[in-house]
Amino acid sequence: MANNKIQLTTRRNILDGFLITRISWYGQLDQPSFLGRLYDLSKLPSYDFRYKTAGEDIHKHTVLNDDWPEEWIFTDDRFNILHSSDKDFLNFLCMTVHPTVRQNNEELTTLLEIYSNNLKRDGFAIEKSGEIAGRPLFSAIDLTKSITTTTTTTIRPENRKAIVIGCSAYQFATPLVNPLNDANGMEAVLQSLNFEVFKYIDPSQKELKIAIDEFGESIKGSDVGLFYFAGHGVQVKGLNYLIPMDANLTSEKIVEYDCVEVGRVLAHMEDARTDVNLIVLDACRNNPFERSWGRGIGQRGLASMNAPKGSLIAYSTAPGNTASDGSGNNGLYTEALLNHISTKATPVNTMFQKVRLEVMQKSKEEQIPWESTSLTADFYFAR
Question: Which of 153, 186, 203 is the last residue of a domain?
Fold first, then answer.
């Protein structure tokens, strides 16, 4: 700590604040998810001989067994919070008040007061530096230098993750032409917008369920989660289902056994507590199995769903209607989405309005895209 300005007594006072107020340093995340936002736990050693990495070690003792005291992090020499560099210490404090970590306003106010009262004696402050989804972001400032040039530490850019699925080669129905191109196009554009993308082409039902479940786990601790599906979808008794490539829907009763309900995706996103969740369904094409179900049984398109808090659900056409697979390289809806998603400084709701206008114009208003949203602040794909 020879070159550090933040004294050991200051650090102890701040860390004691967590114990006195009984506010958890990791907020609404589990401890491995919190630490994973600051450190690569796969490269740190385990102190439990049964495991190889710190990630496995910490998950076992803080999530599964819950047999470590909460203050273990302050003295664990893998992280060295008490004796780390000023930058690492301030990074830790800023992460404790990050909106992904903490949404309880009373806890946030208490922690910021503790930080302010103690850090100022050593010439530092933690101040608001921006917003994400309407919630404040904080950075550490060296008060002894020019504020415009001396931000000591900043929170990392938004952690964005997306899953992209395209189903074209249906085994028991007429193959679709464009979902493969749609998925490839979405993968490329989302990567250019700083998303980590997981892409799946023509998954079976089992593979689709596993992909969704693994994605649900991966977005815990992320800022933005996006789910995109291009292929066949169907509604049955008010529930929406994604049709995987191996589904053989000889009757309506088979749907729940051979398909994957969209609610599975929504449940994972709610559980992950991601700040912004986006679900894009280019899955309202004609039901290819409807003839075998008999007249009057099937319902057209997808049913309306309520978007959970902080979410937006985008449909390629209005509920109860069907969408075009397109005559070009992409489906009509995804083509418009690819044309507008990278537009800078455009709020997501405005971006989808532009998509809707393009689709309506090209389809002569036969296809009208639709969204259900409960976003609480503007989100931008590109600033």
Answer: 153
